[in-house]
Design brief:
Elements (H helix, E strand, L loop, with lengths): L1 H5 L7 E2 L15 E2 L7 H7 L4 H15 L13 E3 L8 E4 L2 E4 L6 E3 L1 H16 L6 H13 L14 H11 L5 H20 L1
Antiparallel strand pairs: 1-2, 3-6, 4-5
The protein binds adenosine-5'-triphosphate and magnesium ion (MG).
Adenosine-5'-triphosphate binds next to loops.
Length: 195
């Protein structure tokens, strides 16, 4: 997060915990700036941002993130990836959108990040809840702003199928989410064809 902040990317500021009181902070504690404002998900539910604008913002945040050189990887096309960039992990502050929840971050090909975002939205869009239609609209807008340089691949090879594997392997993915994963994959490929 500190590396990304140094490159002008909107993340909460982090700092080493003050060590004044022995034992009060653990080495594993992360101190970060408290942000104020709704998440993009809350704004969507309240109707204060349109699904189209949300998709455009998410796409902008992914493009911006992937314009920063990787921190550790020597592979020239690798970038810092968030791998869970969805409306629940963007806070809309008075300073602009800020990306939180970096627990899944890795370095790799940008298409993997786009694939993960698309599948998260696709899983909601493929479900039967009231959020399905807006999620589909966010996904459509996201994919419309993908750009020609990002390669998602097919159902069997490439970044989208790698993203599917990653989500399927996540122990936090429930059984019902697993079932929706295949529907999400189909939907993403279908929408990508239409655009
Ligand atoms: N820097 C921050 N400032 C203010 N609120 C924050 C900050 N970071 C996280 N939050 C709040 O905590 C919530 C959960 O944070 P985060 O997304 O990092 O964890 P999570 O594992 O996804 O948790 P959950 O599954 O409960 O959403 C966010 O939706 C946001 O409301
Ligand atoms: Mg989160």
């Amino acid at each position: 997060m500190a590396y990304l902040a140094d490159h002008g990317y909107p993340v909460p500021h982090v700092r080493a915990p003050a060590s004044g009181v022995p034992g009060a902070v653990r080495r594993t504690d992360l101190m970060m700036q408290r942000l104020h404002g709704p998440s993009m998900l809350q704004a969507l539910l309240r109707g204060t941002i349109t699904p189209e604008a949300a998709g455009l913002r998410l796409a902008g945040l992914l493009h911006r993130l992937h314009s920063i050189p990787a921190r550790v990887s020597a592979e020239p096309t690798d970038r810092v990836l968030h791998l869970d960039l969805h409306p629940g992990n963007v806070m809309l502050t008075s300073q602009g959108p800020v990306v939180i929840d970096w627990r899944n971050t890795e370095e790799g090909p940008p298409g993997l990040d786009w694939g993960m975002s698309a599948l998260v939205l696709g899983q909601v869009a493929a479900d039967t809840t009231a959020q399905a239609a807006p999620a589909r609209a966010v996904l459509t807008s996201l994919l419309a702003h993908l750009g020609p340089a990002v390669v998602l691949g097919s159902a069997d090879t490439g970044c989208l199928s790698q993203a599917r594997e990653k989500r399927a392997a996540d122990p936090a993915t429930s059984k019902s989410e697993m079932r929706l994963l295949d529907d999400a994959m189909e939907l993403v490929l279908e929408l990508r064809q239409l655009l």
